[in-house]
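Course assignment 3, question 2. Fill in each field.
Student: A.L.
Task: Predict the tertiary structure for the chain below.
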Amino acid sequence: MSSRYRKLCIYHTLDGLREGLSHFSGPSRAALLLSLHPDDPIHVLDPQYLMDGHQPKLRELFMDKQDWKTPPPAHKTLRPYELYPFPDPQLTGLLAFGGSNSDVPFLMWFTEEHPDLCSTGPTRCWLEHAAAQLVLDLAASNDMRDSASGFVLQSYATHAVRDYIVDRRNDSVGIDTHLRVYPTLDAILGISHTREEGAWPRGALAFVEPVFLKHLDFLASFPRMEQPSLANLRHCRKLLQAVEDSHRVLVSDGKTIVGITQDHLPPGSILAEFQGRHGFLFLDDEIICSFADGAFQSTNRRANLVQLEEALLESRLSYDTQHSLFRIVTDIVACAQERKHGCTLVLDLRPISRNLAGQTLHSPLDLTSKDGIELACSLAKVDGALHIGHDSNLYGFACLLDGKAVPGENRARGARYNSAVRFTAANDDIIVIVVSSDRPVSIIQRGIELTARCSWTPLPGRAPEPPTLEEWLKL
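Answer field:
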């Protein structure tokens, strides 16, 4: 195997994995630990510093201990693309999959565990497939494959969801099943963007293993020869209206719509909850992923406010005050996203709240009460910002934010975002949360977006040799 071919395989696989996970879970990074021969050290490929901060644990696992160098007896029974799995090192905030076989003594992929994941299962399946693809590429030594794995991993979302569902159903109902998962997922995506009289689908559709249908108590069922075909998406979309805004569920055997039930679903059932332009996919009681715009996504569609939580922790506020403010912001942001409108929240952390240009209130509104938070959610729809003090009171709404131009402005964003950048650059002890109507949430403090991410662009030219783990630990 030439050094050039090996580097191309690794870099194309890394890039494909990163691109695919970024579409599925939002901006994602990936890293690789790899040893190609029993006597070779572990090499580290981490172009985006995903592993930074985990050096002590990696040293303990792979430098102080040499267990990974001992090939297990199971290697002799593995096929060329199969790996004997290594245990997950359980690094905080990271997901990992690694293994070995007779051709590759050690291989482990890493990616970040996003805080808004519905389930880590599909992402773990993605890493497992990336490992298998790289092992195949390295064993093939064929220039025709040097970029093939990258293209496969870029569009692996549906396959990752399917692989995880199949694994879980094998555990719960066995491997001898008649419900095919790929056609089920295709039907869910097809129905999700089929509108009826301009309305997006709402309601629940369950896919039940055919052998369990006889145990269901149906409110209404259809004769065998008249059951609507699942391939007729528009007909299925029309029938979904019968279960809107209710506890009723449409039931399918994977080929046709069988009937309507309110009964508890049997094990191994796949449930799609349509909620308008998006929806959620469940296996039994476990949420697997969401879907929108004809694609599966890992997000639970709740705002990621981790950076706000960290900013509050760094403030001088008491823990109870931090918790109260975080809950208030979470409620208002969730309401704005559900109603699909943008808004701006100004958290004033000063002991005495300043005056902002806008509609002030005769008496501050207590946002710790149910009536107060409901009113604040409605006031968030008015143009301008909500002014929230450190005491969890609302001091004003429709507030105007101004300031001088600063380098952190982004002309690709709207006035709401850029005015928040200017205002926070001129005012300390202020945190501004900007919610866009298309769901992204920005946390801005001191003129800097805390939620901003830098994209990785591979440098042109010849790829360098990845450093060994020992060299990388000394960097």
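Instructor remarks: The first helix runs from residue 3 to 25. The chain has three domains: 3-155, 175-297, 306-449.
Grade: pending
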